[in-house]
Amino acid sequence: MKKKQQQHPSSGEDPWPHGAPVGGAPPCLGGCKRRIPLLPFLRFSLRDYGFCMATLLVFCLGSLFYQLSGGPPRFLLDLRQYLGNSTYLDDHGPPPSKVLPFPSQVVYNRVGKCGSRTVVLLLRILSEKHGFNLVTSDIHNKTRLTKNEQMELIKNVSTAEQPYLFTRHVHFLNFSRFGGDQPVYINIIRDPVSRFLSNYFFRRFGDWRGEQNHMIRTPSMRQEERYLDINECILENYPECSNPRLFYIIPYFCGQHPRCREPGEWALERAKMNVNENFLLVGILEELEDVLLLLERFLPHYFKGVLSIYKDPGQKRAPDLITDGWEPPRGCWELNSGPLEEQTAFLQP
Ligand SMILES: *[C@@H]1O[C@H](CO)[C@@H](O)[C@H](O)[C@H]1NC(C)=O
Ligand SMILES: *[C@@H]1O[C@H](CO)[C@@H](O)[C@H](O)[C@H]1NC(C)=O
Ligand SMILES: *[C@@H]1O[C@H](CO)[C@@H](O)[C@H](O)[C@H]1NC(C)=O
Ligand SMILES: *[C@@H]1O[C@H](CO)[C@@H](O)[C@H](O)[C@H]1NC(C)=O
């Protein structure tokens, strides 16, 4: 890993209210001949983001093997024990006959614009195949809840028939605070630039550039804004492209406490602690196949066979704007080289 400046972008509303197309860059709107120089603010927040995300990932992987503090769910302890022993035995003898522990409560508090709709499509198939209870929510634009709403939601989810997998765009919920069993969490995050681009175009055009999507997603958006060139948006410091809170995903891991939405040491530390204690896995969208493979290995009762379903060409998927015949925005690709190259390397330890 390379040295990093440890700063965080400031402020933290949740700006990613919608579902997520997989794949990063949607088409540019006519203005991509120019290379996009990264403005200082963007460079900083993206790097910081890289730092935060990579830290989360590292802590998450670490959490498979170390219990640093507090009380992780039983399943994670069992899994760590299982992994600890099976690693040893794989190296020194026959594979262990011990069975993989099986959690009956899993929560995927999905981060918007990180491929979650593709994963939810897969989950629908898997829930029929493996007979678990997939609990979804119709609410896509509310990630923070009042105390009463938390209580009600947790009560609802906790009474769902087990084994269940609950998924919703929602900041981390502390089940044990309300007397529930703490479930096992999973999540997927992605390169912050791709996520930014994905959201930018998704707000304007939905998955496709069809008129209907315009009307559904952002009916009141003015035409000038809808067709605003992303380069101009960045270079001219439009609020949509200069607000560092756009990159803030920490509350998904930190929780519902108001301080979780104020970027800073407190929120970051709490997020890391939660990832360590409660998350089985925080995957990276850019390596989705590996993530699916890990899920298949660690949660076979939910994810067995997911990779072959995912790879099946006949399988319906959320549209992938890169590979589904759209011309990728040349300028946008350059965001990932130059100043962000280091971050990209950093994200793949
Ligand atoms: C490994 O397995 C042995 C039994 O085979 C058990 O006694 C021991 O507690 C396990 N150790 C860990 C770290 O899981
Ligand atoms: C969420 O969306 C619903 C309609 O789908 C709308 O009525 C509600 O005002 C939205 N809430 C927020 C916080 O945006
Ligand atoms: C909880 O479940 C009830 C009945 O199934 C439903 O009416 C209510 O909206 C749910 N509440 C939440 C927060 O999901
Ligand atoms: C969750 O709630 C429990 C019980 O109130 C508390 O001990 C723990 O610190 C909380 N964890 C987080 C991350 O809020």
Automatic annotation (TrEMBL):
<keyword id="KW-0325">Glycoprotein</keyword>
<keyword id="KW-0472">Membrane</keyword>
<keyword id="KW-1133">Transmembrane helix</keyword>
<feature type="region of interest" description="Disordered">
    <location>
        <begin position="1"/>
        <end position="21"/>
    </location>
</feature>
<dbReference type="InterPro" id="IPR027417">
    <property type="entry name" value="P-loop_NTPase"/>
</dbReference>
<protein>
    <submittedName>
        <fullName>Uronyl 2-sulfotransferase isoform X2</fullName>
    </submittedName>
</protein>
<dbReference type="Pfam" id="PF03567">
    <property type="entry name" value="Sulfotransfer_2"/>
</dbReference>
<keyword id="KW-0333">Golgi apparatus</keyword>
<feature type="transmembrane region" description="Helical">
    <location>
        <begin position="49"/>
        <end position="68"/>
    </location>
</feature>
<dbReference type="InterPro" id="IPR007734">
    <property type="entry name" value="Heparan_SO4_2-O-STrfase"/>
</dbReference>
<comment type="similarity">
    <text>Belongs to the sulfotransferase 3 family.</text>
</comment>
<dbReference type="InterPro" id="IPR005331">
    <property type="entry name" value="Sulfotransferase"/>
</dbReference>
<keyword id="KW-0735">Signal-anchor</keyword>
<keyword id="KW-0808">Transferase</keyword>
<keyword id="KW-0812">Transmembrane</keyword>
